[in-house]
Amino acid sequence: MDSATVLIISVAAFVVAITGISVYTAFGPPSRELADPFEDHED
Q1: Alpha-carbon span 14 to 16, nearest angstrom
Q2: Which one of 5, 20, 42, 43 has the fewest beta carbons within 10 angstroms of its own beta carbon?
């Protein structure tokens, strides 16, 4: 494979992995531990 192709595939895999981890953290089971600052400081 060409070195540019390997680089593009590596960057794409990294972006997909970060996106997957972010979605899992935001909407999966770990989201119960996230705090909402707007609910904490209601007036």
Answers
A1: 6
A2: 43
